[in-house]
Amino acid sequence: MFHRVNKPDATPGSDKPRRRRCKNCGELFPKTRHNREFCSDACRKEHHRHGGAFVPLKDACQKFINIRLAGVATELQLSREKAEQLRETAERLITGLQEAAAVLKRERQQLDSMTTELRQARRQETQAALLLQNAMTVFQKQATEDAQQQHQQQHQQQQHPKTDIVQP
């Protein structure tokens, strides 16, 4: 009968237990027996089911994933650069729009000022037209009165001709 010898799990002078790497998954596990090769019964069964090909396949998958991640990282970097370019373009557009808005505001103020001046000019034109109309009315009345007076004078002269006394 074999007797179990209690060997320490740690190396002499160390508080850490001895560890071994699993032949299937590569995880470190505490070494409890000298012939233990797998971290769990599931890893042992998987290794025997798939043979030793599983680890190389797993490593190949990991390499493929790393290559794809590098490609994605490159694309992400390009996307970041494109985003930075788009942000700069957007900032330039916003600055341009702000400048255009300032120009439009100045032009609007000038237009408002010109509109006010035009309204004043129209009021003055209306006042001048009213004064001209009043003057024309007064002139027409005066002309009518003058014409009536002349007509009356002519009529009176025809009815009462002046006789000039001629002295011998």
Query: In percent, how much strand structure appears in the residues?
Result: under 5%
Q: Round the mean pLDDT to the nearest integer and report it.
A: 84
Q: What is the gyration radius calculated from CA atoms? A: 58 Å
Distance between the termini: 200 Å
Question: Main beta sheet, described?
Answer: 2 strands, antiparallel
The SSE order reads EEHH
Q: What are the segments in which pLDDT stays under 50 over at least 5 consecutive residues?
A: none
What does this structure look like?
- With 168 residues, the chain is mainly alpha-helical.
- It has a domain at 53-147.
- It is 69% helix and 4% strand.
- It is built from 2 helices and 2 strands.
- A two-stranded antiparallel ribbon has the order 1-2.
- A hairpin with a 6-residue loop joins strand 1 (19-21) and strand 2.
- The protein is rod-shaped.
- The mean pLDDT is 84.
Q: What's the SSE blueprint?
A:
Elements: E1 19-21, E2 28-30, H1 41-50, H2 54-159
Antiparallel strand pairs: 1-2
Structure keywords:
168 residues, mainly alpha, two-stranded antiparallel sheet, 2 strands, 69% helix
What's this entry about, in short?
Helices cover 69% and strands 4% of the residues.
